[in-house]
Design goal:
Layout lengths: L2 H19 L4 E5 L4 E6 H51 L6
Antiparallel strand pairs: 1-2
């Protein structure tokens, strides 16, 4: 069995156990202008996790975009060196006598 799948199943089991043990635990949540009463703890934690994931997605995508120009510069340098070497061979500069 793949280790990623086993790890995923263990994590899912822990999440389900957390939900089952906290079904009776509830709290009041106030946003200042609106108050919600008897909200289950697992639901408030899940909403906080989802909000954090949504906030982090743009940062991850922007981080990948910043790394790409560095890779492009390296590729362009390699391509330029290769073109210069080919041009040198075409002109006969690399011949040995």
């Amino acid at each position: 069995m793949p280790w990623k799948m086993i790890f995923f199943l263990v994590i899912m089991l822990l999440v389900v156990l957390f939900i089952v043990f906290n079904l009776n635990n509830s709290s009041d949540i106030s946003f200042g202008f609106r108050s919600y009463e008897d909200v289950p703890i697992f639901l408030s934690l899940f909403i906080a996790f989802a909000a954090g994931a949504l906030v982090s997605i743009p940062m991850v995508l922007l981080g990948k975009r910043k790394k790409n120009p560095e890779k492009r510069v390296k590729k362009e340098k390699k391509r330029t060196k290769a073109e210069a070497a080919e041009a040198g061979e075409a002109n006969g500069e690399n011949e040995t006598f």
